Q: What sequence folds into this?
């Protein structure tokens, strides 16, 4: 009898555990608030003040009507988690991704095309700064709307310029000038007549430069700081990484020229010297950031840099200007545009309501509130005068002008960008470490990525028509 | 089986059924499915398409695959014996009648309790070329330390050094085994005039050989699958991909490039390698392992 009771308890316990465990997988949680509003689940990557800025817009939306309630959830590694949730058939209704995710997720069938909804809402390309609309489009469909945009500029430390005898209000106007200024600003410790002396790099003797027996204590510029856009330095020399159709162009003459310039830095300052100096850099988001702490005088950075200057180095005398190109007779500067985007994953339960929210974020007042909260600029073609006037970043106009200019470039909008980016970074590393010449390293990238690209493209061409027909029906 | 035995079996299975269901759904099925996916072009979103041996062919012609395999073997070859020996030495020392023995045991075990991510962050600072404490200590000895994390020659040695930090787990297992060695064997050895070394090599080692074997097998499996620390410290593989380990490259293919078929093929190749090495280890050590019960 006792045995029987134990057995019964065992079976009941096991069934209960299994039922509880499995119910989580099978039955979706309720999609209504207690007062009957439809819950739109929104995954976003931002934390801190950026997250708060978005939360304020979400709260406004929730207050503005009584049919939909947006529930924002902060998710790290959002692109991977969204991929798995979508593949598993249980995605959020809205997700905040990066624009470079769009080509791959669109082609894999993980996103809902927005064309139909945009048409109904009367939203067109004219409402946006062109580059951001392009970043949201792929294969003739629009897959996302922007949340916050960014462009990159040269940031320089005016105090370091002044101390080196340079005009602090005059940033370099070409890459050659940037190199010269960098040499003037760079400070090294060198041994002369048994004594250690501090001199500018430009004042070293040819022999001292050649021997590289010095310690760097301050750098004018180094292309690997912060190094986030290393694969794209070719843009400043007129190169691209992809011809937009069927070829990777990693080993184009322009790219080889760009990476010769890139390699000139370890050759000039000494790889070991740069490594030793680089090891003294602290984390990006900290007062020990090399730009914020006055270790590096110039660097390529995004519009967000203002936030970090404001937080960690409010006393810094700085400026922002377009990062000059190599051949200024052809084009004066280059900037890279990036964009955070809002997408509706395929399989989302409340597509219409999700779009309603995205549309709200893309109204001028909401967008300006969000972008002001994150201290970025608006991706919309119309910006209120108050927005520009009240913006805390004194150089915000420059970032907007660059986004509108013909010199704006983007990450290659191809599904194999991640592979291409990783391979380029590996090559860049071999180039900077003087292991390979730019031509050798870039040829390896060309070969490896072209092979993968061809296969991906072949697969895509096989299913393209079917996919496009499917998207039209959505 | 009698009716009662059948019933007992049923009860037992009912009790462990949550685990069985979990195992079937979350371990066995994915493992078997990955065999199929390894022969497919599969990106998670779309239906897998059969491509035969293409993933395996691509893998064997991929230089980065070979580099990741080389890095992983390099790490295993140095880290595994080092960890086995160091953990055994510490266990032997902590098995002596010394003062504050529990304190020392705790101290040596503590690093194993530190989460991997936290310890990786700590090591990033310890190994920092400019401000790292390791280079500072080397400096006191008049040695200019290398840039451990930025110089491709030193990235793998850094990780090998770090692996010693986590020997606490195997040390505890050794310690348990050491305490199980019958005292009388040592007493008779002393009567026979055996030295400390002789006692160690002729009594201790044979008596704890099953545990050494266990730590060896677990070490092979762990070292070949090393992931968290190199991934956190070197992300995409470090300078010239010198710290790109097999599991990291597998992860990149699966979750960065959406090449699940390729990643599945890599996983099965790793499984075969581990299986083979375990088999070799079992074959070659069988004669040297002493089981009191046999």
A:
């Amino acid at each position: 009898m006792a045995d029987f009771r134990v057995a019964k308890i065992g079976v009941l316990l096991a069934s209960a555990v299994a039922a509880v465990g499995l119910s989580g997988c099978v039955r979706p949680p309720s999609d209504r608030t207690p007062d009957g509003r439809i819950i739109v689940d929104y995954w976003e990557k931002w934390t801190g003040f950026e997250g708060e800025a978005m939360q304020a817009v979400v709260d406004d939306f929730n207050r503005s009507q009584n049919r939909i309630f947006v529930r924002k959830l902060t998710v790290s590694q959002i692109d991977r988690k969204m991929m798995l949730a979508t593949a598993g058939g249980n995605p959020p209704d809205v997700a905040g991704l990066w624009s470079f995710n769009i080509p791959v997720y669109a082609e894999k069938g993980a996103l809902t095309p927005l064309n139909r909804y945009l048409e109904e809402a009367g939203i067109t390309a004219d409402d946006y700064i062109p580059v951001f609309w392009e970043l949201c489009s792929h294969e003739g469909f629009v897959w996302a709307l922007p949340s916050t945009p960014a462009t990159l500029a040269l940031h320089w430390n005016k105090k370091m310029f002044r101390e080196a005898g340079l005009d602090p209000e005059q940033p370099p106007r070409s890459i050659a000038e940037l190199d010269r200024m960098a040499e003037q600003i760079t400070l090294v410790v060198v041994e002369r007549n048994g004594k250690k002396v501090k001199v500018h790099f430009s004042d070293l003797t040819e022999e001292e430069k050649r021997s590289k027996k010095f310690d760097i204590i301050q750098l004018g510029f180094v292309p690997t700081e912060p190094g986030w856009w290393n694969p794209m330095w070719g843009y400043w020399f007129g190169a691209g990484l992809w011809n937009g159709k069927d070829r990777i162009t990693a080993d184009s003459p322009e790219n080889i020229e760009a990476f010769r310039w890139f390699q000139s830095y370890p050759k000039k300052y000494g790889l070991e010297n740069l490594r030793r100096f680089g090891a003294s850099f602290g984390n990006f988001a900290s007062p020990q950031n090399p730009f914020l702490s006055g270790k590096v005088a110039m660097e390529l950075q995004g519009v967000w840099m203002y936030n970090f200057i404001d937080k960690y180095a409010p006393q810094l005398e700085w400026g922002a200007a377009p990062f000059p190109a190599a051949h200024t007779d052809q084009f004066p500067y280059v900037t890279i545009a990036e964009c955070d985007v809002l997408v509706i994953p395929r399989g989302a339960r409340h597509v219409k309501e999700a779009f309603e929210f995205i549309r709200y974020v893309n109204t001028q007042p909401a967008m300006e509130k969000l972008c002001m909260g994150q201290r970025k600029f608006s991706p919309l073609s119309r910006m209120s005068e108050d927005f520009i006037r009240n913006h805390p970043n004194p150089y915000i106009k420059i970032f907007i002008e660059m986004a509108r200019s013909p010199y704006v470039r983007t990450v290659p909008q191809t599904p194999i960008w991640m592979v291409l980016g990783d391979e380029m970074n590996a090559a860049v590393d071999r180039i900077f470490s003087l292991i390979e010449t730019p031509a050798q390293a870039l040829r390896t990238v060309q070969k490896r990525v072209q092979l993968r690209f061809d296969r991906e493209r072949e697969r895509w061409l096989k299913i393209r028509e079917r996919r496009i027909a499917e998207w039209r029906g959505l | 089986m009698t009716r009662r035995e059948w019933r007992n079996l049923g009860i037992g299975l009912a009790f462990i059924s949550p685990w069985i269901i979990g195992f079937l759904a979350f371990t066995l099925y994915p493992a078997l499915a990955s065999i199929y996916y390894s022969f497919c072009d599969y990106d998670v979103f779309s239906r897998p398409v059969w491509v035969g041996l293409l993933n395996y062919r691509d893998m064997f012609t991929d230089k980065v695959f070979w580099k990741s395999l080389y890095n992983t073997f390099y790490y295993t070859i140095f880290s595994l014996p080092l960890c086995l020996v160091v953990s055994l030495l510490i266990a032997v020392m902590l098995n002596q009648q010394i003062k504050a023995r529990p304190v020392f045991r705790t101290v040596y075990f503590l690093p194993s309790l530190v989460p991997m991510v936290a310890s990786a962050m700590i090591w990033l600072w310890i190994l920092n070329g400019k401000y790292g404490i390791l280079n500072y200590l080397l400096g006191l000895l008049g040695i200019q330390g290398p840039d451990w994390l930025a110089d491709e020659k030193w990235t793998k040695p850094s990780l090998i050094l770090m692996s010693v930090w986590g020997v606490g787990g195997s040390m505890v297992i050794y310690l348990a085994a050491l305490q199980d060695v019958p005292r009388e064997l040592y007493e008779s050895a002393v009567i026979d005039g055996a030295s400390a070394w002789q006692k160690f090599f002729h009594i201790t080692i044979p008596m704890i050989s099953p545990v050494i074997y266990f730590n060896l097998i677990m070490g092979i499996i762990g070292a070949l699958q090393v992931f968290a620390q190199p991934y956190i410290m070197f992300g995409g593989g470090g300078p010239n991909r010198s710290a790109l380990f097999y599991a990291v490259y597998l992860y990149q293919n699966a979750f960065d490039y959406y090449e699940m078929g390729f990643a599945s093929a890599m996983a099965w190749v790793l499984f075969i390698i581990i299986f083979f090495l375990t088999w070799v280890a079992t074959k070659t050590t069988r004669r040297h392992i002493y089981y009191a019960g046999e």
Observations:
- The mean pLDDT of chain B is 92.
- Chain B touches chain A at residues 7, 10-11, 14-18, 21-22, 41, 43-46, 64, 128-132, 147, 149-152, 236-237, 239-241, 252, 255-258 (CB under 8 Å).
